[in-house]
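$ ./design --mode recover --in tokens.txt
reading tokens...
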């Protein structure tokens, strides 16, 4: 038997076996470079996230500028004016408000005769909500306060110690002349005698309608007794 040939064959088989085992271990164990790559934290993304500032929305600070709560108007339409943070969304009775040139929010509403409820809601970018509720009274049947002095004319001169003041107003208005209540007739005409002092005399006439709106006129009468 050729022992030398058998030994060579055995050595070759052993070498192949050792090589196969080494390859299997290499496949099962990740390299140092691969391990480092898998565990490394992406520094760029971390830095970018750290550099960003948290977003802070403006406080709503909602305030209804017009109308006032409980106000009476003689119209069937009304513009509601609201002040709030610039990044707010304002809802007025279900309508999204627009922005005017001053940065205020507004919406035009149609009013019913009598009581009208208005709800204003604001929400800003971080979800904060604020709201206000108010009541407006629309008096479409009440005439606007009106006043016209028929006589005397402003600056009139008289030698008398009294003068008759006459005027016209809306039929549902009350009248005061120098603080004295005067009742107009069914046509809105009124008259009252005012006592005069020597020299200049201020006559103040005020008409007030059922809604509490008023209009005032003033005139000066000169009394020069003989």
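writing sequence...
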């Amino acid at each position: 038997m050729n022992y030398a040939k058998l030994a060579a064959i055995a050595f070759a088989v052993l070498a192949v076996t050792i090589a196969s085992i080494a390859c299997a271990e290499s496949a099962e164990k990740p390299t140092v470079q691969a391990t480092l790559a898998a565990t490394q934290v992406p520094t760029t993304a971390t830095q970018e996230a750290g550099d960003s500032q948290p977003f802070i929305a403006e406080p709503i600070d909602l305030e209804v500028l017009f109308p006032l709560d409980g106000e009476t108007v003689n119209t069937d339409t009304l513009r509601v004016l609201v002040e709030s943070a610039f990044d707010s969304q304002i809802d007025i009775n279900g309508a999204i408000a627009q922005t005017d040139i001053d940065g205020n929010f507004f919406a035009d509403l149609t009013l019913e005769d009598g009581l009208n409820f208005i709800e204003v809601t604001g929400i800003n970018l971080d979800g904060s909500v604020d709201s206000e509720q108010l009541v407006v009274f629309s008096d479409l049947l009440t005439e606007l306060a009106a006043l016209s002095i028929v006589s005397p004319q402003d600056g009139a001169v008289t030698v008398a110690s009294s003068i008759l003041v006459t005027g016209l107003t809306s039929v549902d208005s009350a009248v005061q002349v120098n603080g004295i209540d005067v009742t107009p007739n069914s046509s809105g005409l009124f008259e009252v005698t005012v006592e005069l002092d020597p020299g200049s005399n201020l006559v103040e006439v005020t008409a007030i309608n059922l809604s509490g709106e008023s209009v005032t006129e003033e005139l000066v009468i000169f009394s020069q007794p003989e």
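exit 0
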